[in-house]
Structure formats: C-alpha cells, structure tokens
Specification:
CATH topology: Neuraminidase
Strand order of the largest sheet: 1-24-22-21-20
Strand content: over 45%
Distance between the termini: 41 Å
CATH architecture: 6 Propeller
Order of helices and strands: EEEEEEEEEEEEEEEEEEEEEEEEEEEEHE
Low-confidence stretches: none
Radius of gyration: 19 Å
Amino acid sequence: MEEKNGIWINPLCEKIDIDGKGPFVKIKEDVIMTVESKGVKVSNDDGKTWSNPIFICEGISDKEPASKYLLLTKKGTLILLYLNFKTYKFSWDEENKEPKEECKLELWAIRSLDMGKTWMDNQMILDGYNANFFSFFQTDSGRIVATVEHLIKNPGRWVSLSIYSDDEGKTWKKSNFIDIGGHGHHDGATEPTCAQLNDGRLLMLIRTNLDRFWEAYSVDEGRYWRIIKPSEIDASSSPGYLLKLQSGRLILVWNRLNPEGEIYPKEHYFQATEFPASWHREEFSVSFSEDDGKTWTKPVVIGKKKGGQISYPYIFERRRGEIWIIAGFSFKKRWEIPFSFKVKINEEEFLKNFKGGKLWKNTGDI
C-alpha cells in the first residue's frame, strides 16, 4: 500500500492501533502489560486503552527506545531491566576521541513478586555507560538472560556481553566481553540481539560498522561467548531484533546494508566511527529461519520511507503466529517529522505468500 506521504507498507502487513511502542509482556491470554516512566499498566484490548499506571521507580525513559524491557518468568516473577536516566550523562572528549570519566548511563534491574503491585531489589547491574539493548528472555532451563552493550576506553568503543540471573532476578552475573575493535562513540560491537536456538545454544547478532552483523554463540546459556565471527547477514550501522517464535522459527527485523536495488553511500562521522559506514535506515526488512539460523529466507521489505528512516525494531508475538513489529524511530526526514510505524503480520500467511528461496547459508563451523 502506497500512502500520500510516501510511506510504503507491505500489503502482507496490517496496521495496528495501539497506544505505545512497548515493551509488552503477556500476563494472561487477554491481558498485556507495558512500562513507562509513570509505571506499569495493563490492557485487555490489545493496547488500545490502558489502566492507570503503578509507579515502579525513577530513572525510566519514555523517549529512548530499547532502553527498558519487561519479563514474566515461568515462576511468576515480573522483572524490569532498564537504563537508569536518573544519573545519565554523556560526556565525550573529542580531542582524544574517548569517553570522559563522568560518562554514565547505568543498567539497573528491579523485580516484583505480586504482578507489579510492589517492587523490590532495585539494583545496578552494570556501571559506566551502557545504551540500547534488544534482548531480554528466559532460557529453557529458567535462566534470565539479556544481551547488552558497554562503552570502554583506549580506544573508545563498544563491546557486547550478556548478563544473567539464575535466581529470578535477585542476583546477576556477566559474561566475557565481545570486542571486535573500532574507535568512536558508535563503533565496535554494539546493540546486540539474541535468542535461544532449538538445540539450546544462544545466538547473538551484533550491530557493527563492517557491512554486516557479527554473530556469537554460547553453549552455556550466556555465561561465555567463545565463537565470534562475521555473519552472512548484510546490515547497515543499525540494530536488528531477533526473536524465537512459538513455532520454533527465528524472525529477524533490521535495516539492510543497502535499499533494494540501490547502493547507499557510506558516510564518515569521525567521532562516531573509525572508517566510513552505511547508515541506511530507509527500509525495514524481515527474514525467517527454520533451522536455528543455518539458513534464512530471502529478506522481504515490510516498510520504507525514502529520505526518512524506519529503525530500531521491536518484535512482540502477541499470540502464536501473530507478530507485532514496531519501529522505535520513524521519521519522514532523517531525524525530522516523526510518524508511527506499527504493523502486524500473520506468520503462516506471510510465509505462504512469500515467494523466494534461501538467501544466506551459514557455512562456518559452529
């Protein structure tokens, strides 16, 4: 469907009328919950209307997408993982191209044992400066895992890691750093997304400025990452969102390296990166894998805005096979004139109508 304002949405997508961009968590079959700075609130009409919020704590941002996530564990514990903007300060030394000592955005966690009525154990999980993250889930064994990015020095760059809890979010541990080098406040291994595969391993896809996602595997549910290498999935300097669906398939939504049929010019922002990179964000694409990421379906563009952006994806499986896809950032011009990009697809119908074959085949030894 082509709209008058030049925003194109794939006919296989249906617009959804919801208040908010997430994150969401299913509380009951007919009830979902979300979180904002005013607290948690619930909806029984698929996000059209919401209850009055119950306050949690200070520091939660409504402006920054992918800065907070909710999780309801199998045992009924509600956990909020969030970037704490109460003491936020970004401070960058442009002469030396390094983060300054006062650069701070801490990662915190808080939990509730009574479905959000009261909250406890508010604690800092990761100090220093951290930023947007794109995975927070429970593994088959019950471990709570998030994959996050962390800013380090000399040279200033991002590394990725996982944090995890084996006691319902009461205490936390962190993995080794994944470091691929780089120099700049948008360089390195950034904004990772992750899912558990059907064979039990974890797969992490990492935003880079190297024309593709890098991938990492963990065989111990996020304690260590020993296999780290470039993936076959081309990508611009933008994050993706990876989710394991109830069907067992993986779904990935992201911005590819180039628009369909075009070459997007690379740009060099000296303080951001060491080398020129593609910052293409004009198209959202989706791909599926039925074999734990060994092969992926050919990407299908689900939305585009020439000269604008649709980026920072969030995916929520509202019901089995009903997939909500929401853009954290969507502008008619690069960072100007915001609009809403919120759609849903039916997994089986989408794949039935999809005409195309396998595009990527992972040939590495994993």
